[in-house]
Design brief:
This protein has 147 residues and is an alpha+beta fold. It has one domain (3-146): Beta-Lactamase, CATH 3.30.450.20. The protein is built from five helices and seven strands. It has helices spanning 7-11, 13-25, 67-73, 84-87, 91-104, and strands at residues 3-4, 31-32, 48-53, 60-65, 108-116, 121-134, 137-146. Strands 1, 2, 3, 4, 5, 6 and 7 form a seven-stranded mixed sheet that branches. A hairpin with a 4-residue loop joins strand 5 and strand 6. The longest helix is centred in the middle third of the chain and has 14 residues, at 91-104. The protein is globular and about 45 Å long. It starts with a strand and ends with a strand. The relative contact order is 0.24.
Length: 147
């Protein structure tokens, strides 16, 4: 089950620290991609997911899929389209939240669970989507934490 406007995601220590940093750097409700290269953002890189609209505007393309996301999902999605097959029931909500960040400059918080079949367990994930620009093109910067 996906929880929208998730209080646990808003208060997750890593997400809170990241959002505080981002909000201090936002201009008109958007963060510039260039700022992510600064050393103060480096501790968060492994948790980041950056998506943008494909050129045809129909799908989302993953620009960056952090190493912690690879570890927990077993997927390497950098450079690929974000697809329903990878996220099943969570796809529609995640896509909508990313589009809200891209098209409406909305910050959002969600959480859910990811089934780890090899371990026969479900791990909680917490997510915040932030509006971002990269070369004057709107995109979505998300931080995703597990546990």
């Amino acid at each position: 089950m996906i929880v929208e406007n998730c209080a646990d995601a808003k208060t997750h220590n890593t997400i809170t620290a990241f959002i505080n940093l981002v909000e201090a750097d936002m201009d008109d409700g958007v963060i510039d991609f260039k700022l992510l290269h600064e050393q103060r953002y480096m501790p968060f890189w492994k948790h980041l997911c950056i998506t943008k609209l494909t050129d045809d505007g129909k799908d989302l393309e993953v620009v960056l899929w952090g190493t912690d996301l690879v570890t927990h999902t077993g997927l390497e999605l950098t450079g690929k389209r974000l697809g329903a097959q990878s996220f099943r029931k969570a796809y529609d909500v995640l896509k909508r939240k990313k589009l809200d960040a891209i098209e409406h400059k909305q910050l959002s918080y969600t959480s859910g669970g990811i089934a780890l079949e090899e371990k026969n367990e479900t791990v909680r994930w917490y997510n915040a989507c932030v509006p971002m620009t990269q070369n004057d093109r709107a995109s979505c910067l998300a931080i995703v934490c597990f546990g």
